[in-house]
Structures are given as structure tokens and as C-alpha cells.
Amino acid sequence: MNKKIIIALIIFVILIGVGVWYFFFYNMNNESEINEIIPEEEISEEQMRQTIVSLYFYNENTNSLVPEGRLIDVKELVEKPYNKLVELLIQGPNNAELSKTIPEGTRINKIELKGDTLYIDFSKEFIDNHEGGEDKEKATIYSLVNTMTNLTEVNSVKILIEGEENKAFKDNKIKFDDPFVVIKEEDSKIEENTTS
Questions:
Q1: What DSSP assignment string belongs to 37-99?
Q2: When you count CB atoms within 10 A of the terminal residue's CB, does the N or C end of the chain come out lower?
Q3: What are the C-alpha distances in Å from 93 to residues 13, 59, 82, 102, 111?
Q4: Residues 6+ apart with CB under 8 A from 15
Q5: What does the alpha-carbon distance between residue 146 and residue 174 come to, in Å, rounded to a whole number?
């Protein structure tokens, strides 16, 4: 009788072993089928080449600079990143609630990175066609600075007009003597000029 119990126990252990093996083998095969990811839509080559950049424009309702995301081809950024971003700022925002900050007719003469300062040489229209007012002038400067300093290698922006340094807007309140640095998040609201 002892032999019968031992044989029954051995058969029982073998059956449990086969059951456990079958359970894990069956589940592993099913899991690999379940976890297989099938894309719903193929990603096109054009989509793979695009990236989002932040361009800063003026919001008159909030009196502040607001970033507008723009989807552009990476190839354009690789070739001439600084020129491309400034050209997009010159074109203006897509959002109707935002205002263009770069004056109409402004052209880029030259853009050059020296150290971590980006030198942007604009045509005279940058000053001549500007509508004026300290708020709008600050918006113009800091839309450029905040946009360009999104690039890791740029920490400040120096503005030149027709190749000349130390120019200023027509009212002479904002001068281009020194490079401009990024405006802090908490200071992004353009202060109104209340002095007469």
C-alpha cells in the first residue's frame, strides 16, 4: 500500500508539473501575440522630418509675449536655423489674437553666432517702419530674444542696423548698445509706460 501511495504521489507531481509547464508555455505564446504593437497609420517621411519651434509674438489683450508653436521641416533648421526663425517672426503669427512684432519691410542682412551671442543685422526698416511706443519696442526686442534663446547655443542677441552697432529706436528709449538676454517668465508681461 505504501508503494501505491508513492506511485500516486509521483503521478500527481508529474501531472502538476505538466500543468504548470503547459500554463506558462501557453501564456507566454499568448502574451507575445497580445503585446505586439501594430501601428494604425504609417508615419510618412515628411512627418519624421518635422519639429515644433516656439515663436514669440505680442498679445495686446494680455500685454505680454506669447509663444506660438510652429511645425517646420528639420532640414530647414539644420541648414540656417537662425535665419529660418527670424524669417518666421518677420512673417508673423498664425493666431489672429497675436500681433506681428517685426516691422513690415524688415530684411535680414546677416546673422552670425559669436560665442553665445547671436548678432542679427537688420535693414533700416527695423527702425524706420516701427510704430513706436516703448511697449511695442520691448515686444519686438524680446520676441526675437525669447525665440532665439530657445536654441541651446544662444544666450543673448545683439541687434545691428545696416551693419552698425549702438543704434536705437526712433524715440531713443531702447538702445541697441548691449546684447539683450532672455526675459524671465515672471517678467514676460510688458510694462506699460505711464510717464509722459
A1: ---SSPPPHHHHTEEEEEEEEEETTTTEEEEEEEEEEHHHHHH-HHHHHHHHHHH--SSTTSB
A2: C
A3: 74, 10, 17, 11, 22
A4: none
A5: 17
Domain layout of the chain by residue ranges: 1-37, 45-187
Q: What is the mean pLDDT of residues 163-189?
A: 80
Residue 168: exposure state from Cβ atoms within 10 A (0-12, 13-18, ≥19): middle
Give the pLDDT mean for 93-106: 93
**Sheet bearing 117-122, strands edge to edge:** 108-114, 117-122, 156-161, 180-181
pLDDT tens-digit profile of 76-96?
Answer: 788 889 999 999 999 999 999
Are 172 and 181 spatial neighbours (Cβ–Cβ below 8 Å)? no
Separation between Cα atoms, residue 182 and residue 58, nearest integer Å = 15
Judged by DSSP in three states, 169 sits in coil
Q: The C-alpha cell of 7 is what?
A: 506511485
Write the single-letter amino acid at 49: R
Contact 167, 127 (CB under 8 A): yes
- Distance, in Å, from the CA atom of 64 to the CA atom of 139, rounded to the nearest integer, reads 8
Bridge-based pairing of strands 117-122 and 108-114 is: antiparallel
Report the 10 Å Cβ neighbour count for 136: 18
CA 93 to chain centre: 15
The band of 186, judged by pLDDT with boundaries at 50, 70 and 90, is very low
